[in-house]
Write a structure and sequence with these properties.
Its main location: cytoplasm. It is found in: Cytoplasm. Helix content is about 55%, strand content about 10%. The protein is mainly α and about 230 residues long. It has two domains: about 160 residues, Ribonuclease III domain (Ribonuclease iii, N-terminal Endonuclease Domain, Chain A); about 70 residues, Double Stranded RNA Binding Domain. Strands 1-2-3 form a three-stranded antiparallel beta sheet. The longest helix is centred in the first third of the chain and has 22 residues.
């Protein structure tokens, strides 16, 4: 199965590990080694430590260079949404790392293979292994393809609570009344429903959002309003 992963990395991302043991280590949990004392090697935890630092630095450098006009607050906000558990777990699944994790029997039975916290650790360990094996330039090129490209797709918006952010922003100078009103509800030809919601503060209209549920439409309206307010600040 490791050969399948290595082949996929080469074909899709042009990544070839010189030291295959690093890749194996990044995918090995401690309980697996406890149950297989005949196998030599370490678990992923040290590589996870390194990969966490590499991800933080790589993302910060990328955002710093891409957005020269952004202040620290905006840079930090986007970095936090990118470098967090659900984001890393999603990337692990996209790379199919979840298929190749070497787990102990107990962890396997408990469903750890699909646990976001473990997939986050495995992602960081993989990045740590890639950094040691190929260096920072290859890591940045890989992240450009699988992580940074998702900024323009709005991928990281799902990890941000824009309703709370909008409320905090609007209440900086005191209490305000924030209302979300449903303006429309349509059923499309494929039976999907599209909701349209407007957000207002103290009866002043701020933005309109759309989504497949009232909740998602409210979040879309809050996101649009918050981003517009921050950009015009």
């Amino acid at each position: 199965m490791m050969n399948e992963l290595e082949q996929a990395l080469v074909e899709k991302y042009d990544i070839h590990f010189e030291d295959e043991h690093l890749l194996l280590e990044a995918l090995t949990q401690a309980n697996y080694l406890n149950e297989h004392p005949e196998e030599k090697g370490d678990d992923y935890q040290r590589l996870e430590f390194l990969g966490d630092a590499v991800m933080q630095q790589s993302t910060a450098v990328y955002l710093f260079k891409r957005y020269p006009d952004w202040d620290e607050g905006r840079l930090t906000e986007l970095r936090i949404s990118m470098v967090q558990t659900r984001s890393f777990a999603a990337l692990s699944r996209e790379l199919h790392l979840d298929r190749y994790i070497r787990l102990g029997r107990g962890e396997e039975l408990s469903g750890a293979r699909q646990r976001d916290s473990l997939l986050e650790d495995i992602w960081e360990a993989f990045i740590g292994a890639l950094f040691l094996d190929q260096g920072q330039a290859v890591v940045m090129d890989f992240l450009d393809k699988i992580l940074f490209a998702k900024i323009d797709e709005g991928f990281f918006d799902q990890f941000v609570d824009y309703k709370s952010k909008l409320q905090e922003y609007l209440q900086q100078d005191g209490p305000v009344v924030i209302k979300y009103d449903k303006l429309d509800e349509k059923t499309l030809a494929n039976n999907d429903q599209i909701f349209t919601v407007e957000v207002a503060v103290n009866d002043e209209k701020l933005a309109i959002g759309k989504g497949k549920s009232t909740k998602s439409a409210e979040k879309d309206a809050a996101r649009t309003a918050y981003q517009q307010l921050v950009q015009t600040k």
